[in-house]
Amino acid sequence: MSDRVLVTGAAGYLGSILVPELLAQGFSVTALDTFARNDGALNAVAAHPGFEPIRGDTRDKPLVERLVAKADIVIPLAALVGAPICKQDPLNAQTINQDAIVDIIGMMSPAQRILYPTTNSGYGIGTQGEYCTEETPLNPISLYGVTKVEAEKAVLGRENGASLRLATVFGMAPRMRLDLLVNDFTYRAVTDRAVVIFEGHFKRNYIHVRDVTKAFLHTIANFETMRGNAFNVGLSDANLSKNELCARIQKYVPEFVPIEAPIGEDPDKRDYIVSNAKIEATGFRPDHSLDAGIQELIRGYRMIRNAKFGNV
């Protein structure tokens, strides 16, 4: 019998890629989501007999307890993702990003596995020229970073947990998000031919949305050796500043003009470079380069022109 995976926030940006792939790999998937956007992100897998969508909220304890009881693996994706939306809605950020995760852990038996996606924005502002490793002290600056770091502590506090510290995710997905940095800058390049940048020297790491799914599947397959640990998940050749990212996009949209603002600041103050050596040592390698992702986004943006794909 295949493992049953409970995915919360299953119809979101990550889930819309992860859930179909889990099903394709032979897992049964219970997909919990409010489905509030009504955007059909998981429509294509409705025919799969192993797919069970459940409309509900990850904070509904009686509902979640019933679903957790039937799961072998829990992947809690439900979250308010990003510094701006968490600042705008701090109560929901706290209850969804942190409290609901702690509650889920309390419902789980020792044998059940939990794979948690967090953010490497927990590193905050790094030391110039020094790579952030999984041993680097966490220094989250935004409420988003704080709630995710606290939830990760709870996950790693149990024997059968693992955490993936995701770089800034990019790429097309059935439930699209335009507000992520690469997706946003490429969209502006295609539609506006310009972008105003705050603190363009700030660096961060990047990872394709399909490689996030690959990392989850890799962790499931290698769980016995990876459990109890956090792993940075990003492209080791893509620790780039915003200005460097714009230069990459200009290779494919030559008329794109980035303008660096002399005043103003980035609401998400992350500035660091990241080492992904720990997960690479387990055999994981991303499949999608930043350049391939930019070209993919340019093709995708020929098809969509809609602000509904934001997250705030």
Question: How would you portray this structure in words?
Answer:
- It is a single chain.
- This protein is α/β, with parallel strands linked by helices and 312 residues long.
- The chain has a domain at 4-171 and 206-236 and 269-287: Rossmann fold (3-Layer(aba) Sandwich).
- Helices cover 35% and strands 20% of the residues.
- The protein contains 11 helices and 14 strands.
- The strands form 4 sheets. Strands 3-2-1-4-5-7-11 form a 7-stranded parallel sheet, sandwiched between helices.
- Helix 1 links the parallel strand 1 (4-8) and strand 2.
- Helix 1 packs across helix 7 and helix 4 packs parallel to helix 5.
- 46% of the residues are buried.
- The mean pLDDT is 95.
- Pfam families: Epimerase (PF01370).
- This is NAD-dependent epimerase/dehydratase domain-containing protein.
- Residues 5-234 form the NAD-dependent epimerase/dehydratase domain.
Mean pLDDT: 95
Query: Structural class given helices, strands, pairing?
Result: alpha/beta
Question: Under the CATH scheme, which class of the domain at 4-171 and 206-236 and 269-287?
Answer: Alpha Beta
Coarse morphology: globular
Short description:
It is built from eleven helices and 14 strands. With 312 residues, the protein is an alpha/beta fold. The chain has a domain of 218 residues: Rossmann fold.
